[in-house]
Here is the input.
Amino acid sequence: MKRSRGGLLLTLVLIWLVVYPLALVFVASVRGEAGWTLEHVRAFVTQPQEWNALWGSLWISLASVVLAGVIGVPLAFVFERLEFPGRRLLGALVALPVVMPPLVGVIAFLFLYGESGIVPRVIGVVLGLDRSPWRLHGAGAILLVHAYSMYVYFYLFSRAGLARLDESMVEAAASLGASRWKTLRRVTVPLLRPQIAAAALLTFMTSLGSFSAPYIFGGGFRVMTTQIVNTKLLEHEELAMVQTVSLAVVAFIGLWLLQRTRGTRSVAVMSKGQPPKAQVIRRPLARWTAAGLGWALAAVLLLPHATLILVSLVPLGSWTTQIFPPAYTVGNYVALLSEPERLRPLVNSLWMAAVATAGVILLSLWAGRLVVQRKVRLAKTIELLTNVPWAVPGTVLAIALATMFSVHAPAVGRVILVGTVVILPLAYLVRNVPIAAGSVLAGFRQLDPSLDEAAVSLGAGRVRTLVRITVPLLRPAIFAGAALAFVTALGDFVTSILLYTFDTRPISIEILSLLRQPDIGSAAAYGVVLMLISAGAMAIGIRFFR
Amino acid sequence: MDDLLGQARAGARGAPVTDGAFLELRRLTKRFGDHAAVRDLSLSVPRGSLLALLGPSGSGKTTTLRLLAGFEVPDSGSVVVEGQDMTGLPPAARRFGMVFQHYALFPHLNVFENVAFGLSGRGDVADRVRTMLELVDLPGFGSRTVDQLSGGQQQRVALARALAPEPRLLLLDEPLSNLDPALRDRTRRELRSALRKVGITSVLVTHDQDEAFALGDLVAVLRDGELHQVGTPPDVYERPATEFVATFVGRAGVLRGEVVEDGRVRVAGGPVWTVTSPTPLEPGQAVQVIVRPEVARFTDSGGVAGRVRARTYLGGRAVFEVETEAGVLEVEAAARAADVGDNVQVSAEHAHAFPRQEPK
Here is the structure.
């Protein structure tokens, strides 16, 4: 343990950016004009609708975990363990919902399954109905979107776990006389527990913080994230603070409970063993059935992407009652790229996400150097602090930063940034600290410490070691963390809606206002651009991650 | 070849120059929490010779090497090279080369770039790298990537990289432990020949006694952070200073005995054997008698009685494990000299005796 001024400085920076704003929210929820008061809390607890919203958030999140798990885990087994035609391509396609920023996924669902969406139109025509067979709204609609976008966590985590599972453990169970079912139940699944628990945790936290789906589809069904934003936009500041605190408390309790079920972290990591081989399905009928089901699944998963592209080609006001749009144009894209006012949100989103990503990566490298390489005295505190933004829903963080940076009091570390160009990149940065720091710290931990020592023993100074050895070797972790952070910032909706100004409005806000006009073609075109940039960033991240 | 030897060369190896120490460890102590990894360790190494630090895991040998390299800072004591105190110097300023246990070759650089890494600022980088690769018998390997090399080749590149900047001292951390046994033997010979050519003063850490004896001019045996003995390989093997050294270095049987007079010990209440010991022995004193398998032999009468418990073949000969009342002996003899289960008698031409430690 080394004392370090750097360690102290980084701790203070993280406390200032992460803990202090949250603390201010807590204080504001119990403070009125005449000092401390429980008045706002009373206003909150006596309102049934507040309880309903909180309960809605909670059960939607738990149901999302179950649904996503039920879809994602079996899919992981199918694609990791069975060999059938098209397995590799399908296995990659199945992960595609991940390149849909939340708001874009929601509007794609709207165009596809919403009341005037393509699927209800087709069914209406086939069955001769004069109106949509269903309405896409309420809890069911939210759960549908959550299941679609979050099963990927279970799928990817379980697949990674399965791929690293040591085949000799399965063989050992078989040699001890265990049946395949028993081996699965007693060996394989328990070994996957850390991965499944991690996916459950991620799904729970993402659902709890989910804003886009309830905002667009919620209707009369309220969850706490939308409740907070509504209250805030109605300028009931104090009530918004109490709501924010209530959601944060639920998040912390959920996090704590789920963390306890997580178990040991790396039991499934193999040391020298071979990962299990995929089993080739030999019977032709079974082979083609599996392949057919796989392609059907892929088609369902890709429908939202395809719909988004289709709708992006619709000229304004041309699509009324037909099943498919009657006319197509690339005009929406041309307008987006050629009219300065249309290009503005894209440029805004790109530069703000890029700045936030660069900032958060530098912060993570600093943290990695202090926590992993120098093992400073405050290492544990620093790592804990980098995880805090993850434990609070995006709405909570946005409210906290909005509160913190709307007062001019430099003496206590507060300045007015709300309404300036600084606030959104800063908010994106803070929100992405856990993602980037998690990736970079894991990268640092995988570095053989003797590489660093070897450089030093060959006479290299700190800067040369960092530039020539550490950063090049961390490149995979840096790219992975940066890609995730960039994509999250680029597609952000919930932080933006609370903190944007007209001049700094990002794509998501523009999409929302276009939907209201309604100029669905342009909204979809923005969605496609966002999706393509996200996919490109992820592809770069994954390429260097290998 | 002379141009690559640098200033570190002095005299032929095998006959270390003994005029004053080149490297001195003075009363080094290093604690991790409550645990003293190295305790009051003093050693000196003459210019041009190789010191092997030998001990089981946890003996403090790696910590000692890291203290030397400057990766750890001692709680007390100092590291002195040519009379100059290095203790406060950062690793980069010490000009010590190091070969790491897992080689620590930079995976994103090729062989040339690895070897050249320590040569920044020199004008003759390409020449120097070529010379070093020739020294380790890998000419023309410069453009290979690290993962294209076998384990033995990686080890040699690591050596070339460490030697390239002409360090004053070379540190080797278990340099052969990552190789499979067949390769280890050959790589050991190559390492020995390369070090000989350069004539650099070196410190090697190993838990393998064969390695320490094959490479070391001096062997220091450590246990629990303390130095038990330092000497030439024959010294350590033939005149072990402690019971631990006697049993850790080479195979040995241990019997309980009682001193008859200095140099003579009655073993297991029976025969009297001639022994050597590091300290004078008092008559009547309880001792541990250490017998090497190669000096123990079966005899028809007048030996220690026991029963053959196991036999391990070594080609035409075998090592027999003989259980006696006073402990277990090992005897090396012709493979057919006895069978498992036979009652035998064993005598020894020569043994070592150490005062028996009361069980703590």
User: Anything to note?
Assistant: Residues 264-272 of chain A have pLDDT under 50 and may be disordered. Chain A has 23 helices and four strands. Strands of chain A lie at 31-32, 35-36, 82-83, 279-280. Chain A has two domains: 1-37+335-546, 48-313.
